[in-house]
Amino acid sequence: MPLYRRIKDGIKQHIEDGTLGPGSRAPSERELAARYGVSRMTARQALSELAQEGLLERIQGQGTFVAEKKIEQSVSELIGFSEDMRRRRLESHTQVLAVERGFPSLDLSTQLGIGLGEPTVSIERLRFAAGRTMSHEISVLPAHLLEGIEKQDLSGSLYALLRDVYGIHLTRADQRIEGLRADERQASILDVQPGAVLLRLERVSYAGDLPIEHVDAYYRADRYAFTASLEARK
Asked: Domains of the chain by range and CATH?
């Protein structure tokens, strides 16, 4: 077994058995190098891989700490961020970054079932849970369905707003999830290092057969995970 793997597995074991709890400081490169008789570069590799897997979190100028447990969301249920956090009894809030009207690209107009010349409303928001950045979302909706939405409070649940103000009940969605590395802009918005792993979710939500919302969301992979329950085909 490579030396860095021995260090990595040792730290992972301490996290799993509770010896190193969430928020506790992880051993430094210097401490690990002395304990295992390896170079600091080898110790750094172990810590880096644990950070990439979301088990450790590096805070500039403070050190490396055990990360909080990830929030897990089922991909089998259509639920908004605010409602999901409320169900978990986690305090959440939203920062509205921009609300703009525009016209869709060909691909977006096809997904929303509207013409190229029909206006859309784009809502860009940053979502927080327990005071920590979680996701950056850009929702695009047909403007003709949402008269005056710019004047509404968009810092809460968009799905609840659609239901309670506009009478639009979302019933299903098609979505795609992929992993990617944060570019400079995403890193700045989500407070991560450039190159950090993100989970990108692209979703089109429907009310019956009518497309309502296209959302492009970027989740911090060190704080979020998507799960699904699967059954074998009979």
From this structure: 3-66 (1.10.10.10), 71-227 (3.40.1410.10)
